[in-house]
Design goal:
Elements: H1 17-33, E1 37-38, E2 44-46, H2 47-54, H3 59-63, E3 67-69, E4 75-78, H4 83-92, E5 102-111, E6 123-132, H5 137-153, E7 159-165, H6 172-184, H7 192-200, H8 203-206, H9 211-216, H10 229-244, E8 250-251, E9 263-271, E10 279-285, H11 289-292, E11 300-306, H12 307-316, E12 329-333, H13 336-351, E13 356-358, H14 365-374, E14 379-383, H15 385-390, E15 392-397, E16 402-407, H16 411-419
Parallel strand pairs: 1-5, 7-8, 12-13, 12-14
Antiparallel strand pairs: 2-4, 3-4, 5-6, 6-11, 7-9, 9-10, 10-11, 14-15, 15-16
Helix pairs in contact: 1-5, 5-10
The structure holds adenosine monophosphate.
Adenosine monophosphate binds at residues 81, 112, 114, 119-121, 124, 126, 258, 279-282, 304, 306, 308-309.
């Protein structure tokens, strides 16, 4: 019997992990510098939380959730996104202070039962932020700018910020009606999914990736034309700020996003060097969600970055990733007594924080030196029966191919000097 990872999931192997660590460390650094604090929520939640927030006519809820009944008979779901869990945690733990802004960030795996393809997985990773407590479009500008800053810090090029406004519960129904009417006349040229969406969630037709649907929505009405006075003023403020702070953007009327909780501003950051799955960051306002989930009315905004795609973009653009520290010392021993002595000195090196390792296999000297070479060790510390008798180690400099004898008692001091 051979086991394999599940469809749409994969192992991130040691030779790929540097890119991930680099992105995660840079994301934390940037988020923290904007005064966001990390939050970690459980991987699974009560199913109802997602039905209620994401919306039961969305693709995520209608066909992509990993939902199961636990042994206690509860319906639970692996989180398909992190905004609803964060809002749940904020309400449950009473994190909102009086009139204070709450700025949070998270990193972690999400789960959606999607058709796997390049850049689309069933277990994928996101880094995201949420700001609760302000309806000010300047806060949207802050997070858009923070996303762009992060991508710039990572060395990415060819980015584009797309923005739109999907209005509020006052004006969106009118837009939905107009869109329904427009699409109704074109129902024959829509894909099967969109024919259903037309009845349940016509906004979703706008961002369907099927070429025939994209063609059909070519001259569809745009949500911007239907905004109420308050939403229109809000959108003008947002675009005004973006212009003032010289953050390049494009208004994209098709940008409605796949989750029902969005209100007003929606945005995506796109990498033009990716193919069909080119959105590396998506977000927007969700002014009604906190109340919908049982909290006090609280305007909020946020975004999520797809880390899997970000790794792909970094590779594509050949961004240089900081390498792992080199192995400083590799201990090579001959015989059991020497191995114990080697292990003792290894502990000393590690206590000093020097990256070091030992050969446990006890093969020939030649084969152990080969391993040291493969591990790219800077120094090899050799100890055999003869050295043991003479209380010395042979220290070989692998770059210079030179070696010297060092007394047992002096070895740690020599390495300490070198590492200073
Ligand atoms: P969403 O939560 O759908 O707004 O997605 C936010 C970001 O997560 C997207 O822009 C993608 O980069 C990423 N993403 C969403 N779904 C997947 C998936 N199945 N596989 C990989 N990345 C994804």
């Amino acid at each position: 019997m051979k086991y394999a990872s599940q469809r749409g999931t994969r192992d991130i192997l040691p030779d790929q992990i540097r890119s991930w660590q680099f992105i995660e460390a840079t994301a934390r650094k940037v988020f923290e510098s904007y005064n966001y604090a990390e939050i970690r929520t459980p991987i699974f939640e009560q199913t109802e939380l997602f039905l209620r927030s994401i919306g039961d006519t969305t693709d995520i809820v209608s066909k992509e959730m990993y939902t199961f009944t636990d042994k206690g008979g509860r319906s639970v779901t692996l989180r398909p996104e992190e905004t609803a869990p964060v809002v749940r945690a904020v309400i449950e733990n009473s994190l909102m202070g009086q009139g204070e802004l709450l700025k949070l960030y998270y990193l972690g795996p999400m789960f959606r039962y999607e058709r796997p393809q390049a850049g689309r997985y069933r277990q994928f990773y996101q880094a995201g932020v949420e700001v609760l407590g302000s309806a000010d479009p300047l806060v949207d500008v802050e997070i858009i700018e923070m996303g762009v800053r992060l991508f710039e810090e990572l060395g990415l090029k060819d980015l584009e910020v797309d923005i739109n406004s999907v209005g509020c519960p006052d004006c969106r129904p009118k837009f939905k009606e107009a869109l329904k009417k427009y699409l109704g006349a074109k129902v024959g040229s829509l894909c099967g999914d969109c024919q259903k969406r037309l009845k349940t969630n016509p906004l979703r037709v706008l961002d369907c990736k099927e070429p025939k649907c994209q063609k059909a929505v070519d001259s569809a009405p745009s949500s911007i034309e239907y905004l109420c006075a308050a939403c229109k003023a809000d959108f003008e403020k947002l675009t005004g700020y973006l212009e003032q702070f010289k953050i390049a953007f494009k208004v994209n009327n098709r940008l409605v996003r796949g989750l029902d909780y969005y209100t007003r501003t929606t945005f995506e950051i796109i990498s033009k060097s990716l193919g069909a799955q080119n959105a590396v960051c998506g977000g927007g306002r969700y002014d009604g969600l906190v109340e919908e989930l049982g909290g006090k009315p609280t305007p909020a905004t946020g975004f999520a970055i797809g880390l899997d795609r970000l790794v792909m973009v970094l590779e594509e653009q050949k961004v240089s990733i900081p390498r792992a520290d080199r192995l400083s010392a590799y201990i090579v021993t001959m015989g059991d007594a020497a191995k114990t002595k080697g292990f003792e000195v290894l502990r000393g090196l590690r206590e000093m924080g020097i990256k070091s390792d030992i050969n446990y296999q006890g093969k020939s000297l030649k084969s152990q030196l080969k391993t040291a070479d493969r591990l790219n060790a800077e120094f090899v510390v050799i100890i055999g029966e003869d050295e043991l008798k003479r209380d010395i180690f042979v220290v070989r400099n692998m770059d210079k191919k030179s070696q010297e004898e060092v007394k047992f008692d002096d070895l740690l001091a020599t390495f300490k000097l070198r590492s200073e």
